[in-house]
């Protein structure tokens, strides 16, 4: 008999006992509990759960905030929020954050049974239809407000049929966002197909996208179904769409406008239902201005534009991601590192990361393989010093605060003197005590909420 696993996040011991007493009667449900959002996130990253129940009033963050974070990491999870003291606005906020149900009185057994029963049935039905493709449900790890807002926008537009344009620098996680959109849509159990337009030879690209009939050209020994047809009612991701040749762009435009294609060598139109998500690491408007990308296609693809911020603009994500990668690579390589040293973390946060999350991931993997102590140390990091030369002045940009400039100057100076605080303090014209206090402040900013 299939069972569904649930995690209960409740800080009221009486309520926790009441919930457990009621849920024990459901033979399809296995559950465990914890009392804080921080602990819940730790558990969810270690083990798989299908249902989460969050009390609206937790000690560290609210149940609504926890719902937003969990949906960002695990979009397929069914989330229930409850409170006997909730307002109408609380219900609205919880549903907007991604909760499927708000239990208005979690002390009432019948309400608990009905809500969890409905959730269990939904999860069992999803299991019967088959699992969501693995790459369509990878966790997006962030606590950056701008990125969380972007995920909220993506979740809102996911159920629509609108074409979506995802842009951002290389390594920011654009395809993961495309997969997140698919996982949050009604197409989540349909095919998810991604094709890299830059990797397609020009003479084969049209066949890959639209298919061909037998005998359509030399070597076409049988009919081929293209990606648009193969995607069915699912999602078709066009990665590096700006690398597509202009003649093919015209055919793509017609396919999206008319919702139909014609195989090479074919004589009849075929209706298509797949939702298109286009991805690019280029400035789309510049590509249009230069003539390398059709303006009409740009506007057809850019119905819902989503731009992922680079890692250097979301510094608070660096410790979160670094810790995540450390645990993952330690587990993969049977290493027993317990964490990242303060000095190593300071260097990671000070890096500009032109390769974004992918570069950070590679750096941590190298560090885990090279390091041998209990902590990842600065000497274990092989950082591209050409990216951040010791003599480089702090970058000044319009909109930077004095505090941000000060922080960058201190980290650059420490890097230039190989973390020697005495020398750094002298160069900065401040006392060692002041320098130490500043570093403690910055590390406090890097700590996760509720840590």
UniProtKB/TrEMBL annotation:
One Pfam family cited in the UniProt record for this chain: Response_reg
Segments forming domain Response regulatory: 5-120
Record-level GO BP terms: phosphorelay signal transduction system; regulation of DNA-templated transcription
Keyword Nucleotide-binding found: yes
Top-level taxon: Bacteria
Keywords assigned: Activator, ATP-binding, DNA-binding, Nucleotide-binding, Phosphoprotein, Transcription, Transcription regulation
Annotated GO MF terms: ATP binding; sequence-specific DNA binding
Ranges of residues in domain Sigma-54 factor interaction: 140-369
Residues with 4-aspartylphosphate modification: 55
Name by which UniProt lists this protein: Sigma-54-dependent Fis family transcriptional regulator
